[in-house]
Amino acid sequence: MSKRKSSSVSENVNKRVRPEQEEDGEEEEDENAVDSAGEVVSDAGIVESITLKNFMCHSLLGPFTFGSNVNFVVGNNGSGKSAVLTALIVALGGNAQATNRGSSLKGFVKEGESSADVSITLRNKGRDAYKPEVYGQAIIVDLRITREGLRTYKLRSKSGQIVSTKKEELISILDNFNIQVNNPVSILTQEMSKYFLHSKGEGDKYKFFMKATQLEQMREDFVYIRTTKHVTEDKVEQQNECLKDLRQRYKEKEERYKSLASLDEMHTKLAELQKQMAWALVAEMEKELEPMKEKLHIHNKIKASNITKWAPPSIFRREQEVLQRSIDSNRRNLQTLESSRSNRLRRFGEHMPALLSAIQEAHRRGQFKHKPLGPLGKTCFLKDPELALAVEVCLKGQLQAFTCDNYEDEKVLQGLMARVFTGGRRPTIITSQFLPRLHDTRKKAVNHPEYPSVLQALEIEDSVVANCLIDQRGIESILLIKNRTVARRLMHGKNPPQNCFQAFSIEGDQIFTNRAYSADQTRANYLSGDVEEEIRHLQKELENQEAQATRFQQQMKRLDEDIRQNEGLLRRAYTDQKTEEELQEIVAKISSKRAEFDQARAQMTDLKASYEEAEQAYKQQKEQINTIAEDADPIKEDLNKAEQEMIKCKHHKKHYDDKRSTHLRNIQSLEADLGSKEQELQTSVSKATEICPERLEVRRSARSMDSEINRLKVKISTQQEQQGDREEVVKQYQEALETYKNLTQQMKNLNSFIKSLDSVMNHRLQVYAELRRFLSARCKYYFDSMLAQRGYTGNMAFDHKNETLSISVQPGQGNKADLSDMRSLSGGERSFSTVCFVLSLWAITEAPFRCLDEFDVYMDMVNRRISMDMMLKVAAGQRYRQFIFLTPQSMGTLPVSKIIRILRLKDPDRGQNNAPTNQDEDQ
Questions:
Q1: What are phi and psi of 276, to 5 degrees?
Q2: Are 79 and 914 in contact, with CB atoms under 8 Å apart?
Q3: Are 754 and 232 in contact (CB under 8 A)?
């Protein structure tokens, strides 16, 4: 067997390494899949290189480039072998105690330096790669330790780009690769080896077995979970007590909340009573008015006065005034149109050109942040001129409006308008941020196959103006339908166009889905395209109106003349009628007097005859008078009585005349009271209508309802004082309910979790016991196999109850009964047995790499060679795993193999860098 050549760094600085070392890319490709013999090699998690700077007592160690399978780090004591292993542990998240090299990280910083740096490159290939799209085929872990003991990480991709600085990311990487720096099977330091393997205690070996197989970690996890479960159960018991108190509090809040319902009922009843009270007062006032109306019924019959004879002239005068106003308006419009022949802006008002000039000058001076735009109608042009009136009626005064980007510009524009428009109405100013792009109206715009929207019917030069009209008027949702009948049928139908809330006809009629309005405007003033045609149309209309006005004036003159003639005739007729009536009265009197004269003449003749007879009778009666005189006295007494009765009647008449005057005064007072009462009634009806629009039939009196209202108000006030603010009561109830529900659900979830945890824990404990038994059996099997390679026999006795592991070994062929404890073996035999124990643990545990520090320190040459052959054999059978052995031996007797790489360290020189020789000797 040929010996391995070795040389120092100084001897081989310029020496060309073997092809396997030179072509790193080729080696990586080979190791990423299979080697030349077809064996699978490691893809992910192995250490590709490590570099140390100012670490422990070394200024610079490395970079060390490791092979994919077997690596020997060779060097004398103090050369830095253990520093490499310590740096590997610390850089991959281990604490200082795990290295057995110190109690604090700051102890790893070289004396006199401010920080120490470690850089480790981990392979990141294959199906187990960690975020290969981010890190690539390698992950570089950079660790810096400061003099104060602070540790910072930088996780870089293969290209060197920093991906993360968080330790959580490093832990995720280690979990993905199954790297366990605290597992003695993965990284076995000298101190750990002395404590566990070379210890004479059976308990220490058992602890080593448990720690290596992670059964100890599982047991600790079980203990922690069980403790957590007990703590959770205690908390559940405590929360159950809290839940009772919370339930009581919730019930109290619920009672207060429910009492709000009765309060609502009282409020509702109060509102209803107030409505009834209002109409009850109206009904009572109406009852009071009925007698007064009956008494004054006779006075309410007012004779119809003369039919107003001035009605026709007044109607004509009103029509003449309306016509004159229309003529004046058309004359002004005509002047505006004639002036707009040369300047279209005058169509929007005679002051508009001056205003735009003032805006331009102010903009030139920088008074505006953004130049205002307007009038808005200036940039709007119709695609169909027939729709001019409809669009104008739709947009109304917005065609003359201006738009500003901000309120500062609006103030400046207001000042310009005040200067230009000294009197009259100013244009509207719309303030809205100027946006360069047109609004997206696809979702809310109306799209009809036959009729355009206002937005579609216009060509608007500026998107800011278009956005302004969209925001202010919603022109994307208004249809233009020429025929008003079709428009009404479409809008009033069951399915009006989607997103359309109104439409306009060609005559300017505005049609909603449930109503319609006619337009007051009859022609377009701003959007008409043909100015000459508009002027001709307006002139013709003006001529017609002036002719009509002339006819009205002539007709008025004729009416005035007729009125004057009728008034003269009326006066003469009145005089003639009065004279004729007096004449007829005189004729009647003459006829009456003539009849009386004839009657008197006839009576005269009769009286003469009677006189003669009377004279004869006189004589006879005279004689009788004397006789009758005595009988006349009683008659005189009766006459006196009659006169007294007449005087009494006159007194009665005066009394009743006075009473009649009193009644008349009462009627006048009653009329005044009736007017006042009717006014009060109207006021009461208005108030009642505000309280309750619909009249209620009330049977109760207002007084009884007023008493009940007062009682109810007192009751409501008392209950509100007891309950507090309504919103606060509702809020407290909702909070209490939510808290109670949440805690109840939490308790339910916790109880369910504890129950599930009990079941899972029982199952896991069974699996744990089975796994421990299985791993113990496998460890025994591999231990016997390793011993048999040298002809040893041995036995491993696990006592899981007492947590001991007894290992007995018989060197050479012998009887099982002759097995002796490892303590009775020689140093070399004991070290060999220890190696067999470690190899058996390797066989039952998983990790991407394994590190041993001075594994052969107590072996003689024979046991060292046998142990080395065994480890190389194991390594050859596990090409997917990396092995790193640290030894002070020269390793010159190693067999030739492509899987072996030796990193030979320089002898210690504290003042110089220490790097591996670049011969690295692959065998």
A1: -65, -40
A2: yes
A3: yes
Residue 561 within a domain: no
796: nearest Cα among 819, 814, 813, 815: 819
Q: Which SS3 state, helix, strand or coil, does residue 120 take? A: strand
Q: Is the dihedral of CA 472, 477, 481, 484 positive or negative?
A: negative
Which pair of structure tokens corresponds to residue 677?
């009462």
3-state secondary structure of 160: coil
Q: What is the identity of the amino acid at 564?
A: R
CA distance 176 to 94: 17
At residue 234, the pLDDT reads 86
Last residue of some domain: 517, 546, 565? Answer: 517
Are the C-beta atoms of 80 and 905 separated by less than 8 Å? Answer: yes
CATH classification of the domain holding 123: 3.40.50.300
Q: Angle 531-691/215-295 helices, nearest 10 degrees?
A: 90
**Residue 301: per-residue pLDDT:** 46
Rounded to a whole number of angstroms, the CA Rg of the chain reads 62
pLDDT of the residue at 270 = 74
In terms of DSSP bridges, do strands 510-512 and 502-504 run parallel, antiparallel, or are they unpaired?
A: antiparallel
Q: Say what the pLDDT of residue 334 is.
A: 55
Q: In angstroms, how far is the first alpha carbon of the chain from the final one?
A: 12
Question: What single string gives the DSSP state of each residue in 815-826?
Answer: -GGG-EEGGGS-
Please report the pLDDT score of residue 21 as a whole number. 36
Tell me the CA distances in angstroms from 825 to 199, 700, 834, one per residue in order. 13, 119, 11
Q: Strands 115-124 and 70-74: what pairing?
A: unpaired
Distance (Å, rounded) from C-alpha 348 to C-alpha 425? 12
CB atoms within 10 A of CB 443: 6
- pLDDT reported for residue 335: 58
Decide if 163 is inside a domain: yes
Contact criterion met (CB below 8 Å) for 511 and 504: yes
Q: CB count, 10 Å around CB of 811?
A: 19
Classify residue 206 by burial, with Cβ atoms within 10 Å: 0-12, 13-18, 19+: buried
DSSP H helices, 492-530, are: none
- Tell me: the pLDDT tens digits for 146-190? 998 899 999 999 999 999 999 999 999 999 988 888 888 888 887
**Nearest Cα residue to 151 out of 169, 162, 167:** 167
Rounded Cα distance, 101 and 114, in Å = 19
In a domain, 259, yes or no: no
In whole angstroms, what is the distance from residue 636 CA to residue 455 CA? Answer: 116
The confidence score (pLDDT) of residue 921 equals: 41
Give me the half-sphere count of Cα atoms (radius 13 Å) on the Cβ side of residue 547: 6
Q: From residue 136, how far is each of 29, 43, 92, 157, 682 by CA, in Å?
A: 14, 13, 19, 6, 92
Cis peptide before 375 (omega within 30 of 0): yes
Q: Of 172, 276, 117, give the one whose Cα is nearest residue 696.
A: 276
> Does 660 fall in a domain?
no
Cis ω before 497 (30° cut-off from 0): no
CA 323 – CA 301 distance, rounded (Å): 40
Q: Find, among 904, 890, 891, the residue nearest to 11 by Cα.
A: 904
* pLDDT attached to residue 201: 77
Range of the domain at 178: 19-183+847-904
- Cβ 716 vs Cβ 270: under 8 Å: yes
Q: If 0-12 CB within 10 Å is exposed, 13-18 middle and 19+ buried, where does residue 16 land?
A: exposed
Put residue 803 in one of left, alpha, beta given phi > 0 → left and psi -120 to 50 → alpha: left
Closest CA to 832 of 883, 804, 798, 790: 790
The count of domains in the chain is 2
Give the Cα separation of 743 and 241 in Å (integer). Answer: 12
Position 193, amino acid: S
What is the model's pTM?
Answer: 0.46
Q: Report the distance separating Cα 17 and Cα 11, nearest Å.
A: 13
Both tokens of 638, joined, read 């009766």
Residues (pLDDT < 50) of the chain are 1-38, 298-312, 340-342, 817, 911-912, 918-923
